[in-house]
Amino acid sequence: MPSTRRLLLVSALIFVLGFKVQAQKNNAFVGVWEEVGGTNAKGEQETGNAGMRRIFTADGFYSITFGRQCAGTQVVNKPLPEMSKEELLDRLRCVIAQDGNFTVDGDKMTITRRSANVPQNIGTTQVMQWKVENGELSLKILSDTGQAPVGQITRYKRLK
Asked: End-to-end CA distance of the chain, in Å?
């Protein structure tokens, strides 16, 4: 094989392998994650949303769901159609839900909310720094949208 062809083949192989490594790095967080804790902007430990689920898809969509029951919420054991307005509102006041799309640029992830249970968040964007280390995803808030302060770090374990 002439040296020019060999050089071209080796160059193409290096390019393809480099592209594959970069794609794997940028897709490292794709999957289903469950919140396990984190720190607030002051660096204090927090576990208030432990159990919340985040899903990132390979085609750039994300969703967050958390059907928690807040402290002080009365447990009502009857079908939804039989609940009073007050019982329904109490049951739903601590539910977290949103979805949208995301883009990645290096270690920065920008999410754009399509829907959110907090109306003022619909259509907003947020920038986070992401890192996957030892099987754990961490997201650090870099831009404030009113709910999660800059500097807050949330950690997740992979479910799938």
From this structure: 46
